[in-house]
Amino acid sequence: MLYLGYCRHCGAGLLGLRRCGQGHLLVLCDECDALWQTSDLGQPPQFPPQPDLPCPHCGQSLNGPTAHWASLDEVRQAGWNDALIVGPGGCSAASAT
Amino acid sequence: MRPGRRSVGLTLLGFGVLLAWLVVKPMLPTGPVETGQVRPETPNAGPPASVERPDGAAEQAERPVERPIDSAAGALTELPGDVWRSPGGLLYGPGSREGHRLRHVLRHARDDPDRPGEHGVFDGDQAAIVALIDEAYARSEQGAGRVERDGPRSVVTVDLQRRVGYVGGQVGRRQGHPATRHVRLVLEGRNVITAYPLRP
User: DSSP for B41-82?
Assistant: First the structure.
């Protein structure tokens, strides 16, 4: 899972890059489901309704069968700054490719 | 054989077959039975269910195929909608990538040594973990610990004044798995979003 850092809301979760079934990219804490719509983590998180976690853009569940943790290619396609991203093992996913 | 005797013979044969079927039927394997119970999670019982794939398409592997709850472990009570209530009144329902909040919490029943950062690991099995979470909740209701509110959420951190687990993950491994005595709960009302031991 690619992630941007640690969740300041719960203090334990990794902020993963979640892609909904419609291709919208979001930041989602894998521990507490706090959500950010952009990589600007200075904004307060949102807490989408449980248990489906509807995507704020299209309403598709972020826990649905077509939602998944985004790959680096998907992050790049979405135009996000992949220099911010950390991959498994703590390395920079961008520099690891 | 005369027709009358043949008829009696066939009748007896039919009874014999029926009797044999009734005896053998209970011994035959049956299909899946929906009991609402599966074996409890066993700490340190092997690798996690999900496998990271470079294309990020690991969702099917992440999703549980069985119901997550062992109602006997932790004396959980089933409510409609696959929601389970602990003796302390906390609710565990569907949600998370694990498919159910109890299964999500039980990620903290075992170490995840490759997970970046800290990964709190509870001592004990499902029953002990549910009881610890209930205890932390009860103490916070009595004014102990710290409660931070953020919209619908409450993040509760309580010092249970004794060892409740240890720090795992990459940081825990580097530090020799120090003990923890605090429990953090993330709640929406009485609904458990997650819970884990930590060093605040």
Answer: P-TT-SS-S----TTS--HHHHS-SS----TTTTT-EEETTT
CB contact under 8 A, A47 and B153: yes
State how far Cα B54 lies from the chain centre. 28
Residue-wise pLDDT for A15-70, tens only, equals 999 999 999 999 999 999 999 999 889 999 999 999 999 999 999 999 999 999 99
Report how far residue B58's alpha carbon sits from residue B62's, in angstroms, rounded to the nearest whole number. Answer: 6
B122-157 residue pLDDT tens: 999 999 999 999 999 999 999 999 999 999 999 999
Count of alpha carbons within 13 Å of A15, Cβ hemisphere only? 23
Structure tokens that stand for B50 in this block:
């999900």
Bridge partners (DSSP) of residue B195 are: B185
Are A18 and A70 contacting, i.e. CB atoms less than 8 angstroms apart?
Answer: yes
Q: ipTM surpassing 0.90, yes or no? A: no
Closest CA of chain B from A52, distance in Å: 7
**Domain ranges (residues) in chain B:** 68-200
The model's pLDDT over B40-74, given as tens digits with 9 standing for 90+, comes to 333 333 333 333 333 333 333 344 334 445 555 55
- How many Å lie between the alpha carbon of A51 and the closest alpha carbon of chain B? 4
Nearest CA in chain B to A67: B59
H helix or E strand, kind and range, residue B134: helix B126-141
